[in-house]
């Protein structure tokens, strides 16, 4: 049986993530990972052919980890409860996964990838975006609520709640949970559908 690699993909991505959070996007480089871990450059390039693929994988892995936890929230039979649980998942996941949460809350893909998504991983990004759009659409339909209102309640509100703490390098305060839940319930308590006005 062969030996497990000393520097597996997650180890390399953890090091890249740390460089991003401490030095910013410009500091996330293949050489930076090599230096931080004392790894042979071949170990990095074997898994990530270039800096953009490395940066893309840091982002995609964080999104995949976050979206995996939404499954239980989406499964709630009552649409208002599903919305509340989805919003609270942002806070709970950010506390348990502060480094990945900081990547998603403090940066945008264009910050990491100014030239756009590498072709090899673009489908994964598109699948992740489609999953969010599908979820929001389904929640809007189930609740009979304007999609813009749903997005505000389950994305804008919890994201705004966690971002200040993450900027300070801290976990979001537990007291935020009640505030976020109250805001979501108030926002979505009375279903509304936006109608377009005649031109």
TrEMBL record:
Superkingdom to which the source organism belongs: Bacteria
Pfam family, one: TetR_N
Keyword match Transcription: yes
Keywords: DNA-binding, Transcription, Transcription regulation
Domain HTH tetR-type span(s) in chain numbering: 6-66
DNA-binding region coordinates: 29-48
GO molecular function: DNA-binding transcription factor activity; transcription cis-regulatory region binding
Coiled-coil intervals, chain numbering: none
Protein name per Swiss-Prot or TrEMBL: TetR family transcriptional regulator
Species whose genome carries this gene: Mycolicibacterium chitae (Mycobacterium chitae)
